[in-house]
Amino acid sequence: MNQVHDKSIKKRLAALPGVIPLVRIFKNVYWGLRHRLRLGTYNLDGVTHLHKGVTESVAYVVTVFEDYFKFGSIEKQAFEEKDILEIGPGDSLGVALMMVGLGVKQVVCIDRFFTYRDPDKEYAILAALVEAAPPLAKERMNRCLGNNYGIVGDAIRYLPDVPIEEAVAALGEVRFDYIISRAVLEHVYDIEETYACCRKLIRDGGRMIHKVDLHNHSSIELHPLQFLTYSEGLWRLMSSNISRVNRCRWPQHRAALEKNRFVIEKFEPTKMLSLSEVQSIRSRLRSPFLEMTDEDLSLNGFFVVCRAV
């Protein structure tokens, strides 16, 4: 009852003009100061497994893993002896471990922040994935698990505090055959620089598979596209130090991909708003969203598969 009451109060406060930007600016400044004073970064973003049981977490990891092949239309054998870059693994390296089971050469996992994780639960998730794997995959995966709850060996490299925009400098001459991510690219600071860095990191002919969630992550705003009514400058004041969504819509992703010599092989919407929802807020939208079509704005998530040329 108290949670419902608290949410109702937040909804009423959020309806007051200026309250949402003011609260978010304060939060953004607070986390910026923490970062500068080395008191920790905003590391609860990307936490998926904190409130899940081990069985539920394992099922989630398997779903994420399988989706790359389902939507990518790629046979699992194609990953054997390949180099993989996973952007934003969050609080589990389960997907990377399953990739090792396929016989990949190496999986490099980068994250903007070190995401909070429960080491006991993480080890239980990884151990359960190993236990469920076929014999050859199990043997490969087992070699990655240490006795101190950590990943050992060179098959998986985990590099926190490396945003994708800085990955070229951090990784040096390393190049990849596949770059994958799930619910990450909506959080990067600069979508054009992100795809430019991906192009530098991927080999010619390499493929990327990304699932991107474009929806408004706020639960208190009154309209699903309300976050597109803030100016670019105000949004930076609200989000520059934390992992708030970047608001880039599909036309911006498409243009950045094509600019950086990626050919889109497959595109599949995953979430849609109704056109009436878009039209009900259109007059309040800011540029560049105001210039986009209703159809483009109604797209609230997608899978994209593309090839570097």
TrEMBL record:
CDD domains: AdoMet_MTases. This is Uncharacterized protein. It comes from the Bacteria. It comes from Candidatus Methylomirabilis limnetica. The lineage of its organism: Bacteria, Candidatus Methylomirabilota, Candidatus Methylomirabilia, Candidatus Methylomirabilales, Candidatus Methylomirabilaceae. Pfam families: Methyltransf_23. InterPro entries: SAM-dependent_MTases_sf.
